[in-house]
Amino acid sequence: MNAKNHKNVKKSLVYILATIAFASLTSWLGVARAVTFQPPANQGNPRQTTGGASRNPGQCPMDAKTSSKTIEALVPKNNNGLTVTERPTIYVYVPPTVAPEVYFSIEDQNRNPHFQTNVSIDGGDGIVAVELPEDAAPLDIGKDYQWHFVVKCNGRLGPRNPIASGWIRRVPSRNINAEGTPEQIASAYGGAGIWYDSLATLMKAREAQPGDANLVDELQELLSSVGLQEIASDTIRK
Question: Is the model's pLDDT at 158 over the cut of 70?
């Protein structure tokens, strides 16, 4: 090896060691990388996609307050998402409306009912969380489920009611290193393609620490990574 090559190898080793040292230092200090979502490879699609698998715009046609915003499922654009949780939390943005509640249901890929409930929305204009309770049956690993979130216009369900829908599949934890700060845990889930748990980690942390600006930034980064920039900018900062 000549002197020039030896010098280049030495520089490379110094760079590698510095990179490792920096990564170790940031980990020790509890510094998390930006939380973004990486779609999982070979996720596949649900066997059925008709009957509300896409977002439907609109508000209650007879009693909505004036607004150009529409109901929006907080999911990746293909409406598919993974979870490692038996009873996950699902999030939906609801625009201003005087409708008092929504109907939430989840069914398996063969349309067999799994869970149903009514959820108060208190005027909307914010993100609503629906968490499967302890008395709900856990999601089966490897099984696709479709959920529906229907605004009850005038307290009733009907074909014109605004609806947000999506698909969810529970998968094994895959040895994900979900430890550390909420940002680090969310980053681990997001990097592994586990959408629902990445979002829920940050949303619950923000609820517990509403004044934490870093959590707000990370939520905006995560939502923007799946094309939900408008919700990230207009709603998360409130």
Answer: yes
